[in-house]
Amino acid sequence: VDWAKDIRSGKNTFSGILQQDKSFNSYDCYIIKIAEKTGNFVEVFENLYQFYDHKIQTQTKLLTKLAYPCFLIFMTGIFYNIPLIISNFSIKKLFVNLLWFYLPFILLGGFFVWGLPKLLSKDNFFARNLESVVFRTPFLGKFHLSGVLARFMFSLEMVFRSGIPISNGFELVLKTTNSPNFRIDLRKIIAISHQGLSCQVLLKELK
């Protein structure tokens, strides 16, 4: 209700209100900002739904592929402690042994799920080099690159459909990307976009 009052009274924009709500990330806010500039709310929200639907499907496939290795790790921990169970069974000792066995895998999984995205969201030398390593990592690199490209192409599509000038459009796309290396290339594109170059020539700057 407060949102509706603020928007009707002109106190705030829809994207500005969403930025105050922690349930929405910066990507959602900037995409909706494109809708505000163009008035294509229905089309933008439909495409935003399709983007997240694709993201959920990708994550589901990833979890499916990881299920079997996780099961093997779990069973390895059990088999590793079978001698303890047979000889001198102690619930406390068994729990401690299993905890120490699984802890490295838990920490590694937490790093890839939460830590790595946080580090890559930064815009510094370390983040750029870390992402370069990630891109060269089998499976993980392909997964990360597909997510970056999906965001980039979706944002670019919204900009081109809206009729926003190319230079302003790439500035909006820059704010939506989650790749520190893509940000460098996009800044180069923005710097030369005022020279009247075609979009095809500008996109060649993406490495």
Mean pLDDT value: 77
Q: In percent, how much strand structure appears in the residues?
A: under 5%
Specify Rg, calculated over alpha carbons.
23 Å
| Strands, total number | 0
Q: What separation lies between the terminal Cα atoms?
A: 46 Å
Low-confidence stretches: none
- Give the class from helix and strand content and strand pairing: mainly alpha
Helix/strand order: HHHHHHHHHHH
Structural key phrases:
207 residues, 81% helix, elongated, mainly alpha, single chain
Describe the overall structure.
With 207 residues, the protein is mainly alpha-helical. Helices cover 81% and strands 0% of the residues. The radius of gyration is 23 Å and the shape is elongated.
Topology record:
Layout (H helix, E strand, L loop, with lengths): L1 H8 L4 H7 L5 H13 L2 H40 L1 H6 L3 H30 L4 H12 L3 H23 L3 H11 L3 H13 L6 H5 L4
Helix pairs in contact: 2-3, 3-4, 3-8, 3-9, 4-8, 7-8, 8-9, 9-10
Brief summary of the model shown:
This protein is 81% helix and 0% strand. The protein has 207 residues and is mainly alpha-helical.
